[in-house]
Specification:
Elements: H1 11-36, H2 40-51, H3 59-66, H4 70-82, E1 86-91, E2 94-102, H5 104-125, H6 130-155
Antiparallel strand pairs: 1-2
Helix pairs in contact: 1-2, 2-3, 2-4, 3-4
InterPro entries: ArsR-like_HTH, HTH_MarR-typ, MarR/SlyA-like, WH-like_DNA-bd_sf, WH_DNA-bd_sf
Protein name: Putative HTH-type transcriptional regulator YcgE
Organism: Planobispora longispora
């Protein structure tokens, strides 16, 4: 579909809109996590586990994606296993390493929770051209990289 004519916006307006979306998303993640009997960190990590598809993550890979220490990820995995969301499975290529495998029933519950939102996003996206969607995808990727760099600075004790 061809993109619609849109009013111009300033960078400040875009950042303010993003801040509102992030704030609302944090509230939504908290609500969804509570409904699923998880905390937000565990839900976020489970999202990374699901996002890996059949290329199951190691604990170290999950730690990197979630910006957590490996020690923190051990606690996350213990809780996810106890709650029936994931299990550790020996890596067939290296039996000393374990991979994190999502429970199929738990994955279905997560999809069911997020499906209405993703349907709304798909409907919203239909009003944008492929080029506009590409620009949005690029902007979000670059914004995520900027956030990662800022988090690294904060963790090193510097000022962002």
């Amino acid at each position: 579909m061809e993109g619609n004519s849109r009013p111009p916006a300033t960078v400040e307006q875009v950042v303010a809109a993003m801040d509102r979306l992030v704030s609302l998303s944090l509230v939504g993640q908290h609500e969804i996590a509570q409904r699923l009997g998880l905390n937000v960190t565990d839900l976020t990590c489970f999202g990374h586990i699901l996002g890996a598809g059949d290329d199951h993550l190691t604990a170290g890979e999950l730690a990197e994606r979630a910006n957590l220490t490996t020690g923190a990820v051990t606690g996350v995995l213990n809780r996810l296993e106890r709650a029936g969301y994931a299990r550790r499975q020996a890596d067939p290529a290296d039996r000393r390493r374990v991979r994190i495998v999502p429970d199929e029933g738990a994955a279905a519950r997560i999809v069911e929770m997020y499906d209405p939102f993703y349907r709304r996003l798909a409907e919203l996206s239909a009003g944008y051209s492929a080029e506009e969607i590409g620009a949005l995808a690029d902007w979000f990727a670059q914004a995520a990289a900027a956030m990662r760099a800022t988090l690294e600075e904060i963790r090193r004790g510097g000022t962002p």
